[in-house]
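Lab notebook: predicted structure, single chain.

Context: the supervisor wants predicted structures on file for every construct in the current expression panel, including those that have not yet been purified. This is the next one on the list. No modifications to the sequence; it matches the entry in the shared construct table.
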Amino acid sequence: MVEDLNEREKLILNKLSTEGLVTVTAMARELGFSEVTIRGDLKALEDRGWLNRKRGGAAPALHRDILERKQTRLEEKNTIARRAAELVCDGDVIMIEAGTTIALVAKYLQSKRDIHIVTNSSLVYSYARLNPMLQITMTGGEFRRATESLVGPIALDTISRLNVRLAFVGTDGFSLERGITTHLAEGAEIVKAMKAHAETTVLLADSGKFGKTGFISILPLAEMDMIITDSGLPDIALESLTIAGISVERV
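Prediction complete. Output recorded below exactly as produced.
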């Protein structure tokens, strides 16, 4: 989790996200620390799944796009995920779609008991596996490195066989005119499938995504039972959504 990293480790990850590779010698020179210290940082980051060490340096364990997204709007994403986790009750079966905000929901389920998570996200798995109180079902399917997700017929077939109380889904952009949208058609099908097999579907999206439009339209906003976003959503946007009958919670 980014908030658990020290400043030096964050700088290393920033370098990885922009250049795709770091060397011990270059990072030691740039940050003003010994190579021994940098090697220790790389080992710590590898142990937490952020990178893979190579001879003389390291490469990211995650796709560059994911690495960048995980480090943006951190406070907002964690606030949204924390509120979403509060909706989960002991004994619930829930679905969590792929996305850097939604994945954090699993992180905030520590106090819950007997929760069963169904997900197509390897990021969700990385958080959930640390909590022995969570049961995890992975959908299977074709792995998409750019989104750390499992998609395709196998994933859709798994979802179609299951029924849950809550589904948490994400988006690349949302608006009244275009609904929730994405850049990936396969991801759109996953969202639709989860919506079809959940009693309640909750959209988690930071305010920066409001008004943005992805290539693929997924569902109208009215199809969402609730939207959780952050306090950065403008009052005028909240008003327009509320007038349209959309349930929105700013946190």
